[in-house]
Design goal:
Layout lengths: L9 E4 L5 E4 L12 E2 L22 E5 L5 E5 L2 E2 L4 E3 L1 E6 L6 E8 L14 H8 L3 E10 L3 E3 L4 E5 L8 E7 L9 E6 L1 E2 L5 E4 L9 E3 L5 E7 L43 E2 L2 E3 L2 E2 L1 E2 L8 E2 L6 E2 L9 E2 L4 E2 L18 E6 L2 E6 L34 E6 L4 E6 L5 E5 L4 E3 L9 H4 L7 E3 L5 E3 L21 E5 L4 E3 L19 E8 L2 E9 L11 E3 L6
Parallel strand pairs: 22-23, 32-34, 36-38
Antiparallel strand pairs: 1-2, 3-24, 4-9, 5-8, 6-7, 8-12, 9-10, 10-18, 11-17, 12-16, 13-14, 13-18, 15-16, 19-26, 20-21, 25-26, 27-28, 28-29, 30-39, 31-32, 31-35, 33-34, 35-36, 37-38
Length: 534
Amino acid sequence: MARLVGPRALLFSAAAGAAIALAACGGGGSGGGGGTVPVTSSSPAATASPTLAPTAAATTAAVNGTSSTSIQLGAVSNGTTNEVSSATVTLPATGVATTASLGLTGSAPASVTAPSTRSMAKKAAALGIQTTIAYFTLQFQNDVTFSQAPTFTIALPFTASGNWYALFEDSTGALTPQGWTEVAQLTVGANGTTLTLSSATPFSPPITLKANTKYYFAIATTGSGPIATPTPTSAPTPTSAPTTTPTATPTATPTAEATINPAAIPMGMTSISQGKWSSTTPAVGYIYSCQSTFNGGGASTIGPWVNQTNLTWDETTKLAVQGSVSWPSASNSFTTSGTTRTITSNDLPQGYTTGTYPIAMSDPAHQYDGNPNSISAQNFSWTLPLDPTTASTPSCLPMGAVGVMNDGVVVYNGLDALGRDAAVFEVLDSCEGHPDSSGEYHYHQINTATGCFPDTKDADGHSGLIGYAFDGFGIYGPDGVNGNQLQDSDLDACHGHTHTVLFNGVEQNIYHYHITTEYPYTLGCYKGTPIHGY
């Protein structure tokens, strides 16, 4: 578990003894202005969610505060087929007499697509959600404090497939300044047509839901959803996805190749509007993305450093955000114990300055990227495997942090919130960093030539360790054996390879990632198993 968005993590137990974890979701999309990301289209190989008609009206019930209260809702239909036969939510005793309003709809509430990096979308992508069946909306007339979670019982007119989850969100900031996102697994009944979430573990301390604030609950599955679903109007699988599984084989000792011209770096784009990513297949030179829909914000105008005809960009003439801001409160620690490595950080850079954010209107960068976000201290803690191993299959990369550098600052994947090459379109500071809407300062690319990341080489010229991916494997600088500058063709689809490097203070033959001058810059996918939430 990496970050707690809110005062604590919450643990639940499901009916029938099945354990479920209700854990705060981590960070999300790229910097810039944020944007909308539909929760139902953010997973790998996602299928379009049914477009459901909302119920006629929410059900209102009196809550007496001294005993549990059950509120039952009828069916939700897509116009031809019921998607939910019925739903019952049982509220535990709250100690407060009030009125509860409960609605059920098939259309996403505004909160789900709000410009927030802490949204349902990232958690849905991490879970592999393919279909969202319905959304509950719960609202109280007075402040209500819960010592345990409500119980949900949902009847379906079809046999449930896949793993089912309830995703929770409040984007108003009533619980924390940034809003919150939680997830809990639902128990599928023996008949395959009922879903249940019940609480066996009390909240400690209790949770207070604020008056006249809507709280949203999405019911979603990793399966294909209803047997009879409407035909989707558009397929979320990206047109840029490679049609065949890549056959490139990593090499332990890459041969010398011409270095990439920094004035004509190949863009991570198949066209000026389509980034190189796939939600279905890892491939060399692509990002294997957990997200398949990109409707977020970002840089508004293409800069003059971009050659739109040749799809290259000039790093030597690209603007950098002005300013020189020091962060004396920056702190981080890297410790090992047993089989784990623990990293804590407040995400503020040490040893160098950042640009001034939000980007000032007087800054020449503003005409291309009006990033309105400020840098703020975070409270991060990650526990990584000390000796990671490769997984049987690669894992997709979420929007948001995929690793942390030696300076304690997180690195995101190479995409912006519009699914484009972030290094090309977003204007960054002189150390290639900027903040997102949650205040997280982060990188999309790492350039050791800036001086912000000293590249300490070993005896044969191989770049040293500069960070860790969230599967535990090391991230190394841009040069391979004999000091050769590495390119995509030297690395596998996850942007790494296996040979002997210094790791954990020992020379060992181990998989590792490399940063490169060309896209995807850091990781293309996770070669190992990422920690929970990433």
